[in-house]
Model the fold of this input.
Amino acid sequence: MSVPDPHHCITCSDEGREMIVRALDEARWIALCEDADGTRSSVEVALVDCAPGDTLLVHAGAALLKVADGLARPDAEPSFGTQVRATRGGDPS
Amino acid sequence: MRFVDEFRDPELGRTLAHEILATVDPDRHYKVMEVCGGHTHSIYKYGIDDLLPANVELVHGPGCPVCVIPMGRVDDAIAMAHQPGVIFTCFGDMMRVPGSHGTLQDAKAQGADVRMVYSPLDALRLARSNPDREVVFFAIGFETTAPSTALTLMRAKAEGIGNFSCFCNHVTIVPPLRALLESPDLRLDGFVGPGHVSTVVGARPLEFIPAEYGKPVVVSGFEPVDILQSVLMILRQLADGRCTVENQYKRVVPYEGNLRALEVLAEVFALRPHFEWRGLGFISQSGLRLSDAYAAFDAEERFGVPGVRVADPKACQCGEVLKGVIKPFECKVFGTACTPERPIGTCMVSSEGACAAYYNYGRFARDRVVA
Done:
């Protein structure tokens, strides 16, 4: 679990925080979300499709995406986590 | 946080460090720029720099949104804050960024109503609850923060909140990268690409870097294993003679970005012809203003601002630090006249600034432990 980091820039709000949706007001596109420290705040969710229990990446009070489940564990293989595209032509390589 | 433990696994980190050592050409010096301030912070917090061979140098880029705000814009903000009836709102770090005659914190001490908020939505709430006051939000940040401002403005427009406005200082990441690549001061071999910016814009806008400049880019997460793996992926591209955009952070970053966010940005913002960046000067089409549809919420139009360009203090070398030309400890005032408690330059204000990262994690000299 994350440990609060006194040196990390939260106040400039350009830091992404993972938050869990606790309640959703779909009519207003606002969700009550909770971070790893248990702090709750209102989050704009107009840019993502989400439901209570989902984990969102939140920047400056707006959710930018829903964090996917089933993430692979990292390993030392160079193929891990890569989505390689040829610069010209756009084909995966 | 989910999966954080795996991405901070010391054994994996050591394995990656050994692979990096096995990949580098010992007769070559590599310069790799990490674009984001968040990466810079993680590198020094976790000592990633010490795990790299001595001939792999990490250069710190202009990706801290607080650090790139020029002094003239801070002066403009302070002028607005002193207007009668104004509640001026900003993120916490911006309170301490020096203008030519002090900071917003100083303005608050002199009687201006300056308040810290955590999101533009907080500022809009203030506007709702103070209908007899003018609430101005000091909007800063890259494409990660701009959607939040855009959604708030859309909400303000829909609700007809007339006492809310935005002092827009949002910037985009691609133009400064191009400016750095054109700079004769700097020779870079590759980029650790922006992670969270890419959640919005995707990785495709970075394709010009390999296509036009022949440099590899790896979009990276922010945990230590993420960054080590990204550096390895860059070095492997160089060793193989390849040059592409790779996405190490695909658990978060879709290659095409968030299309809904891009639509929102296109509706609310328009590109400025040019915008001043601290240390980098004026860069074409690098800043955002409010679009014509949202011009009524433009604080610069509503209040008027001095708009005077102010040169950085001579002692401060934030510009050279932001361009990666010097390391923070090479600045004459680093750690002496300029500290996080009494910053002279922006890079010492934000904790994601390179100078603050070096200071907070004790990097006062060039000494490195070689892996």
User: Anything to note?
Assistant: Chain A is about 0% helix and 30% strand. The longest strand of chain A covers residues 17-25. The two ends of chain A are 35 Å apart (CA to CA).
